[in-house]
Prior knowledge:
By secondary structure, this protein is of the alpha+beta class. InterPro entries: Ribosomal_eL32 (IPR001515), Ribosomal_eL32_CS (IPR018263), Ribosomal_eL32_sf (IPR036351).
Amino acid sequence: ILAQAILEVPQSSESAANSRTEMVSPADKRKIVKKRIKKFSRFQADRFKRMNPAWRKPRGIDGRVRRKFKGSTLMPNIGYGSDKRTRFRLKNGFYKFLVTRPADLEMLLMHNEKYAVEIAHNVGAKKRKEIIERADQLRLTVTNRFARLRTEEGA
Length: 155
């Protein structure tokens, strides 16, 4: 009886269009926890302008950072790693999937709740438009949707 009632309800073209433009939310809503947000900087990089702050492992025989003295600079190690289930996730909860042509979107046909599309930087405006149109049809989230898309002015 319920199935018949559902079949009898007519769907207007407006509601079908609205369902396509609805935002898709990620299937896994697990909270992303970063154990450390602050970057690991190179020991004594704050003292010398010539020294790059990018992390380098201290290898000196007397280095207090290498020997892990109390109060010295922290060294990165495996314990600061993210949870395996949330690693590489974007802030919106999706995994990033790089796309260079509209045909690449077909791989995500059944995975629109797990992956978000990111259009590669070397894709032109014409192909970007095609990718975005196809992504809307497949209800895929596009992270850089408005990048390098020209709108007509004074038309």
